[in-house]
Design a protein that fits this description.
Layout lengths: L3 H16 L5 H12 L7 E5 L6 E5 L12 H13 L6 E7 L5 H6 L1 H21 L9 E9 L5 E10 L1 E3 L6 E3 L8 H17 L18 E5 L4 H7 L13 E5 L2 E7 L6 E7 H9 L10 E5 L6 H18 L27 E6 L14
Antiparallel strand pairs: 1-2, 1-13, 3-5, 3-8, 4-5, 4-12, 6-7, 9-10, 10-11
């Protein structure tokens, strides 16, 4: 299988030599980490089969949050924790998309614009939900930033996983949403646009934004997603990596990279072939600023509300048991037990023989005394 590390190892040095002055430090760091991932540069373990004496080398992962090879276990741990917080109610997935006319500004000032995108979208959704004409209660929202389309184009948007209901002002009464309706999308889009406009107006970026963007219709999507477990499984892989899994890369020949993606309209599998330089540029557009938090919780799902959330969950479980109206739930997979590698020769479990440290850099030359 061709990996992103293979692509970066072959074409990355040339790309950095040509475009390095225009790359951000996080982009350079991500490239170098992915190139080194699971190679002898990071050290690893040596396993030996006690039955046939075969030897296998298992090199360490880079653990960069943008690497498609790394952190599967971290993603599964995050998924398990979030599933434990789910309320026994239907859920909705609400998506706020940044308009095309704002994307150039966002790409140049990612941390600032992404933060304002989170704040404006979360505030707009919470404000509309508080309106008694819609729900009349406080929502819980788990937001995950994504910046890509299926073919790796730059397309910043935030997915919010939202329980179908809210907590009334008394802090005890649960206001249940309709099975297929949370809030109206048109007023939500208008409110979202107004809040982001007001926020950007207070920044130095305001003069760089074309005026027509505020006259366009903005896109907000809301759809029911059952118990929320399937939506969480969709979001989990992208919390600890970005944009592309290794199994989607099909070929790397003659300076070009071919990868597979699913067409959003037809849901058919398609392929995209790009020059290696263009492929790398598309991927690097999704490298986040250092320290930027791409997963944020609001309202009932914020970290400070865990005790209140636990009480609410117990209350809703009790109510559903009495009414026997527990919603259909997706099966939750059991976490896989950690296993030793299997010998490729005889199929038996291998044993750890020794740990390989990362290779050290050569010592710096000492100045020669004159």
């Amino acid at each position: 299988m061709i990996t992103l590390g293979d692509v970066f190892r072959r074409y990355g040095p040339e790309y950095r030599a040509r475009w390095g002055s225009q790359l951000s430090p996080p982009q350079v760091a991500a490239m170098e980490a992915i190139e080194a991932c699971r190679t002898e540069r990071l050290g690893g373990q040596v396993y030996r089969c006690p039955h046939c004496d075969a030897v296998r080398y298992a090199y360490h992962s880079c653990r960069n949050r943008h690497c498609p090879t790394c952190q599967h276990d971290a993603g599964q741990d995050w998924l398990a924790r979030q599933q434990d917080l789910l309320l026994p109610v239907p859920y909705f997935l609400v998506t706020f998309t940044l308009p095309g006319a704002l994307r150039a500004v966002a790409a140049a000032h990612q941390a600032q614009v992404y933060h304002l995108l989170f704040r404006a979208s979360a505030t707009a959704l919470q404000q509309l939900a508080h309106d008694p004409r819609f729900l009349g209660g406080q929502l819980g929202m788990l937001g995950v930033l994504q910046t890509w389309t299926r073919d790796l184009r730059y397309h910043p948007h935030i997915h919010y996983l939202v329980p179908g209901g809210g907590l009334a002002a008394d802090g005890r009464t649960w206001m249940t949403a309709k099975a297929d309706f949370l809030v109206h999308m048109k007023p939500l889009a208008i409110l979202f646009r107004a809040k982001l406009r007001a926020a950007l107006r207070q920044t130095a970026l305001w003069t760089r934004i074309p005026a027509e963007v505020w006259r366009q219709d903005w896109v907000v999507d809301c759809r029911p997603v059952g118990s929320g477990r399937t939506a969480l499984r969709y979001l989990a892989p992208y919390v600890f990596r970005v944009a592309l899994s290794n199994n989607r890369i099909l070929a790397m020949d003659d300076g070009q990279v071919t990868f597979r993606y699913q067409d959003g309209q037809t849901h058919q599998s398609r392929t995209c072939t790009l020059p290696a330089e263009a492929f790398i540029a598309r991927f690097l557009a999704h490298i986040l600023p250092k320290g930027f938090v791409k997963v944020r919780a609001y309202g009932l799902l914020r970290v400070g509300a865990r005790q209140q959330l636990a009480r609410l969950r117990a209350q809703l479980v009790l109510q559903q048991r009495k009414a026997d109206l527990r919603p259909a739930d997706d099966a939750r997979p059991e976490p896989a037990a950690r296993q030793e590698p299997i010998c490729p020769s005889c199929g038996q479990a291998m044993r750890l023989e020794r740990v390989l440290p990362p290779p050290r850099a050569p010592p710096m030359p000492q100045p020669v005394a004159s």
